[in-house]
Amino acid sequence: MKKKNLAEGNNEVTGLWANVFKRLKKSKTSMFGLLIVIILLFTAVFAPLMAPHDPIVGQLALRHNEPSMEYIMGTDSQGRDVFSRILYGARISVEIGIISVGIALILGTAMGVVSGYYGGKVDTIVMRFVDIMLAFPTILLALAIVTILGPSLTNAMIAVGIVNIPRFARIVRSSVLSVKENEYIEAAISIGCTDFEIITRHILPNCLAPILVQSTLTIGTAILEAAGLSFLGLGAQPPISEWGSMLADARGYMRQAPWSVMYPGVAIMITVLGFNLLGDGLRDALDPRLKE
Amino acid sequence: MGNAIIKRILLVLPVLIGVSILAFSILHFIPGDPARVILGERATAQAVIELQEKLGLNEPLIIQYFSFMKNIINGDLGTSIITNESVTTELFTAFAATLELTIFSMIIAIVVGIAAGTLAAVKQYSIFDNVSMVGALVGVSMPIFWLGLLMIWLFSYKLGILPASGRLAVSFDVPRITNFILIDTLMAGNFAAFKDGILHLLMPGFALATIPMAIIARMTRSSMLEVMRQDYIRTARAKGLSEKVIIFKHAIKNAFLPIITVIGLQIGLLLGGAVMTETVFSLPGLGRKMYLSIMARDYPMVQGGILVIAFFFVLVNLIVDITYMFIDPRISLD
Question: Cβ distance A153 to A230 under 8 Å?
Answer without folding.
Answer: yes
